[in-house]
């Protein structure tokens, strides 16, 4: 799941701004494309004419490609803390989270009880990913995935696999491959799932007879299941604010993947402001304009980052959850 952690990105809410529209391109002349078609025909029994027809309509998305060429650059696929604060932790967005909790409380409570996860964190996920379906992406998924599958980039192998899952998903669910829209990475719906993740976690949680990536009720179930499957421990800590000297934190490496003993943290002047009852903690830093916020992350915090591999992402969900908690 690690590569999926990287690609299930912050919602289009912040970054969907396609400055350069896709352009016509003949992907079919590529040997890699022809090899892909042959594999889909042989292994998954697609009609060759169908694949040729669909892929001949795909366009080259230069904006999408630019985000994945070369090495990773901060801000290209995930934003700094300042942008999260401005777009998903502003007063209007937080009020929308409260309204969503109230409106969908019955479904949220059912998912919370069924999967043993706090309903506030389910709300936090959907808030960050799409602001409750306000921003679900305006990139044509066919263009994004075809471009990234057949043009050299640092995650080309992953995207070629996602293009495979895209065709399988469209066949299984009856989706129109020409019209589906989502993120620059091919993620779609209320919680921005790439095709492989949708095929694994998509569900008909509202029991209306169909799985719908844009159904808020379906996605309440999806997020609850995702959290549970990735080790959420109900009733345990998520994160605790910490104190330190100065305005900018230095001295230890930060990040949700690295854990320190509380003794080590204390020796570097990092003191939890509330009780932290786990033996080890990750050191989380949020860089604001003039200072840093420092938090101690528990094992549950890491679960939040399994959907998007970024400390800022997890902390945005945590703060929303804390804000709407009764």
Topology:
Layout: H1 2-7, H2 12-15, E1 23-24, H3 31-44, H4 48-56, E2 59-60, H5 62-66, H6 81-87, H7 91-103, H8 105-115, H9 119-130, E3 139-140, H10 141-150, H11 156-173, E4 181-182, H12 195-201, H13 216-229, E5 239-243, E6 255-261, H14 262-267, E7 271-272, E8 280-287, E9 292-297, H15 299-304, H16 311-324
Antiparallel strand pairs: 1-2, 3-4, 5-7, 5-9, 6-8, 8-9
Helix pairs in contact: 7-9, 8-9, 8-13, 9-13, 9-16, 10-11, 11-12
What this model shows, in words?
- The chain is α+β, with helices and mostly antiparallel strands.
- It folds into two domains: 1-233, Bacterial muramidase (Helicase, Ruva Protein, domain 3, Orthogonal Bundle), CATH 1.10.8; 239-324, Lysozyme (Orthogonal Bundle).
- Helix content is 48%, strand content 11%.
- It contains 16 helices and nine strands.
- The chain has a five-stranded antiparallel sheet with strand order 6-8-9-5-7. A two-stranded antiparallel ribbon has the order 1-2.
- Mean pLDDT is 91; it is low at 1-17.
């Amino acid at each position: 799941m690690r590569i999926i952690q990287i690609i299930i990105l912050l919602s289009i809410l912040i970054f969907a701004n396609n400055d350069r529209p896709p352009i016509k391109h003949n992907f079919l002349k590529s040997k890699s494309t022809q090899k892909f078609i042959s594999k889909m025909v042989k292994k998954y029994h697609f009609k060759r004419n169908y694949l040729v027809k669909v892929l001949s309509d795909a366009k080259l998305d230069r904006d999408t490609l630019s985000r994945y060429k070369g090495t990773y650059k901060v801000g290209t696929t995930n934003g700094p803390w300042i942008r999260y604060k401005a777009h998903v932790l502003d007063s209007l967005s937080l009020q929308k989270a409260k309204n969503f909790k109230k409106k969908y409380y019955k479904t949220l409570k059912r998912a919370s009880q069924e999967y043993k996860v706090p309903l506030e964190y389910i709300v936090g996920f959907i808030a960050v990913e799409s602001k409750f379906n306000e921003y679900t992406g305006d990139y044509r998924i066919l263009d994004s995935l075809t471009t990234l599958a057949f043009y050299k980039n640092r995650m080309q192998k992953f995207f070629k696999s996602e293009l495979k899952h895209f065709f399988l998903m469209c066949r299984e669910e009856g989706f129109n491959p020409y019209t589906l829209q989502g993120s620059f990475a091919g993620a779609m719906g209320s919680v921005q799932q790439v095709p492989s993740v949708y095929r694994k976690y998509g569900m008909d949680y509202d029991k209306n007879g169909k799985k719908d990536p844009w159904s808020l009720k379906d996605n309440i179930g999806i997020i609850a299941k995702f959290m549970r499957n990735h080790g959420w421990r109900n009733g345990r800590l998520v994160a605790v604010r910490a104190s330190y000297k100065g305005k900018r934190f230095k001295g230890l490496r930060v990040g949700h993947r690295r854990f320190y003993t509380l003794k080590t943290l204390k020796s570097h002047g990092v003191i939890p402001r509330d009780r932290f009852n786990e033996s080890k903690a990750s050191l989380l830093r949020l860089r604001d304009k003039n200072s840093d916020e420092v938090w101690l992350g528990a094992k549950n915090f890491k679960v939040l980052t399994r959907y998007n591999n970024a400390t800022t992402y997890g902390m945005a969900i945590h703060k929303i959850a804390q804000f709407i908690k009764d």
